[in-house]
Specification:
The protein is α/β, with parallel strands linked by helices. The protein contains 21 helices and 22 strands. Helix 4 crosses helix 19, helix 13 packs across helix 14 and helix 19 packs parallel to helix 21.
């Protein structure tokens, strides 16, 4: 949805008077704003959290929300080990159990199920996808969300609900990090090593670590020198800030706080920081597009009227509306469908012609979102800095009804660092930006996760397959898979949740369920047929790349080319210096086409593309 902006290629059947904006002027503005933010170091500008960074591996392993759990190392054998207890692990376990496979061990780094919804407890944390479509297994667990857009606490509780419903706690080990996966050819088993000294064997490994499991830090000169308090948003320190996920950060009443980053997380937590801190400095390189939330309580009459199969049907309709097809009335005021609404509106004005209108619809969408800034922010200069000039899906869209108004507070200052392409430095007492030192008591890093950095940085687990070959060596020219799930040379290994976060549309949880069901089918078939080892053939990998991933589709396209979008993690910071070939990871035809492809493969029954032993 965010391709290269070239006005010469855009057919303009509508006049500027009808559109309400000048497309050529906007195109030039977008290019100018992008150029201000391009950095040659691209994703190398970020620090991987390690023992050599300001926050060590111990920072990740220590759980601020739970006491240390003591246990003896495990030496055991399981049919399946699931790495990760977030949505990927929970959904895959549920679908395996439904398929009759119960010998499962779940390894989770947190102290409970939930994954990102366990760790991310920052104030205001909320899902941007409507909860009726996003929260998985609602029908199976008999739960209806309280709100149209659930807050993190309710989402975490639902993860626990799933764990209890499918009796997964008895087979889960928490506060445990996998340190290596190694294929044992003589045994046709995987050896799983952990930070707890565990040595476990498993016939199958489902890698469900998710896209947001490893936080990263901005590589700002002097970041290690700061003597005040600091933390990453995924390890929010309520002992310091006071309050809870609902706000009330009374510990900041006498503190000056600086937050670095204005992405989706920052948009959600900045309102609480603005309310609680004596002074808040918001350091912004690129503004987020902030649309309205339109949240509301669940209509109980509607909830009681739901018929079996309602959630899958709703997920399907959400996907169709998001991808530019018909819009169900349930999503007519959903921010994710604003672009589709504008596309259909312009097509109507152009007598039904859609070709050439996508870029114009995107311009119109962003003009509407930019107008919300003027509606909410009183200071015109500040408002101007908060307006996002790029295509909507160049960066992750955000939705919040309190963020923009926060900049009307006298104790909140927006520090625009676009002219220097980011914060210049950090010293012992504060943050240096635009040649000025901002003295702060606390620095909060809203700097995101290792989502599109190198494969090894993102997964964080050494994985060795046949002949001891590293999976990262196999992927040195780009991720290679079959169906985005299995890898040649790494038998019985399943990349549940896919290689890239939004590969199947905005509703990531739905995409996970599609893949979890497919993995459950595959493992149950191998089990029933007495097959010990299933290895993807090189030919199957090649066919997947050439026949599927290089075929242009109509699905969700992330980030556009590096020559068009503003820098961000969708396009690996907008440079041609790529760490990953994202085109080999995504499935551009959308979740519907992906579902049909997998169904056809299962119906064939031959397990095509797998060398079986």
């Amino acid at each position: 949805m965010c391709g290269e902006i070239s006005m010469a290629e855009i057919d303009q059947p509508l006049s500027e008077a009808i559109l309400g904006f000048d497309p050529n002027e906007l195109s030039q503005r977008y290019a100018k704003e992008r150029e201000k933010r391009i950095r040659p170091d691209a994703e190398a500008q970020y620090l991987r959290i390690s023992n050599d960074s300001p926050f060590s591996n111990k920072y990740l392993e220590d759980d601020p929300y739970s006491e240390k759990l003591e246990r003896a190392p495990l030496k055991e054998q399981r049919e399946i080990i699931l790495v990760g207890g977030g949505w990927v692990g929970l959904l895959t376990a549920a679908r395996l159990i439904e398929a009759g496979v119960r010998d499962i061990r779940i390894i989770e780094s947190g102290s409970d199920f939930g994954g990102t919804w366990y760790w991310n407890r920052y104030p205001g944390a909320q899902c941007d996808i409507e909860s009726y479509s996003y929260l998985p297994l609602l029908e199976e667990t008999g739960y209806i969300p309280k709100l149209r857009f659930s807050y993190a606490s309710e989402i975490y509780e639902h993860a626990q609900r799933i764990g209890k419903h499918f009796d997964l706690y008895k087979d889960a080990i928490f506060q445990t990090w996998v340190t290596e996966l190694r294929w044992l050819e003589d045994e046709s088993m995987w050896l799983v090593s952990t930070n707890r000294g565990d040595e476990m064997r498993a016939r199958h490994i489902c890698l469900g670590t998710g896209p947001a499991n490893r936080p990263r830090l901005p590589g700002i000169p002097g970041v290690e020198k700061f003597k005040g308090h600091s933390f990453h948003t995924c390890r929010w320190d309520y002992k310091y800030t006071g309050g809870n996920p609902e706000g009330g950060l009374i510990g900041l009443a006498d503190k000056t706080v600086g937050i670095i980053g204005t992405g989706a997380t920052a948009v959600q937590c900045i309102p609480a920081l603005g309310e609680g801190a004596k002074q808040l400095f918001v350091f912004q390189r690129t503004p987020s597009s902030v649309d309205t939330r339109n949240n509301k309580e669940t209509d109980q009459k509607w909830a009681k009227s739901l018929k079996p199969g309602w959630q899958k049907e709703r997920q399907r309709k959400f996907g169709e509306a998001f991808l530019g097809r018909s819009i169900d009335p349930a999503f007519i005021d959903d921010g994710w469908t604003r672009l589709t609404r504008n596309l259909l509106d312009l097509a109507d004005k152009a007598n039904g012609k859609i070709d050439g209108l996508m870029q114009l619809a995107d311009f119109k969408t962003m003009e509407e979102i930019r107008s919300l800034v003027d509606d909410n922010v009183k200071n015109p200069e500040v408002a101007g800095k908060l307006k996002a000039y790029y295509n909507q899906f160049c960066k992750r869209p955000t939705f919040n009804d309190f963020y923009l108004d926060t900049f009307n507070r006298s104790n909140v200052e927006l520090v625009d660092v676009s002219s220097t392409k980011g914060v210049e430095a950090i010293n012992a007492t504060g943050i240096i930006a635009n040649g000025k030192e901002y003295k702060v008591d606390c620095i909060i890093y809203a700097s995101g996760f290792e989502i599109t950095s190198s494969y090894e940085r993102r997964l964080g687990i050494p994985i060795f397959g046949i002949d001891g070959k590293s999976i990262y060596e196999h992927w040195q020219d780009g991720m290679r898979t079959m169906h985005g799930l299995m890898v040649s040379g790494f038998p019985n290994l399943y990349l549940c949740g896919g290689g890239f976060v939004f590969q199947l549309g905005a509703n990531y949880a739905h995409g996970i369920d599609v893949q979890a069901s497919h993995v459950a089918y595959t493992i149950s078939q191998l089990r029933n047929r007495g097959i010990k080892s299933a290895n993807v053939s090189i030919d199957a990998e090649e066919r997947w790349i050439t026949d599927q991933l290089e075929t242009e589709g109509s699905g969700f396209i992330l980030g556009g080319s590096p020559d068009s979008c503003t820098p961000g993690y969708y396009n690996q910071e907008g440079t041609s210096k790529r760490y990953r070939n994202v085109n080999q990871e995504t499935y551009g035809k959308g979740v519907g086409a992906y579902v049909r492809l997998l169904r056809k493969w299962r119906a064939d029954g031959t397990l095509d593309g797998l060398d079986l032993d």
